[in-house]
Specification:
Length: 91
């Protein structure tokens, strides 16, 4: 067997072995992330409860934001929102 063939065999074997180990560690990391999902949800709920203690300006901004969301939904029901920009110029 030539040196080039041996080098190719060694490199391809090392690449396959490294890839298999990498996939294993990625799968383990994803599994751990799934297990931590409920913990993250609990933390998110706690943050949301902490955010409920807003100052008056933040509450006013939040109320304005909610009003804007309702207005957008109302207007979206009246006309189609395509995102297309219509210019008044004819070419």
């Amino acid at each position: 067997m030539s040196r080039a063939a041996k080098a190719t065999l060694i490199l391809s074997t090392a690449f396959a072995f490294t890839s298999a180990i990498g996939v294993y560690f990625i799968a383990e990391n994803e599994k751990d992330s799934l297990k931590n999902g409920p913990v993250k949800d609990a933390a998110r709920i706690e943050r949301r409860l902490a955010e409920s203690n807003l100052n008056s300006k933040q509450k006013a901004n939040l109320a304005d934001f909610e009003a804007q969301k309702k207005l957008r939904e109302q207007l979206a029901g009246q006309q189609e929102l395509t995102g297309e920009i219509i210019e008044g110029k004819e070419r």
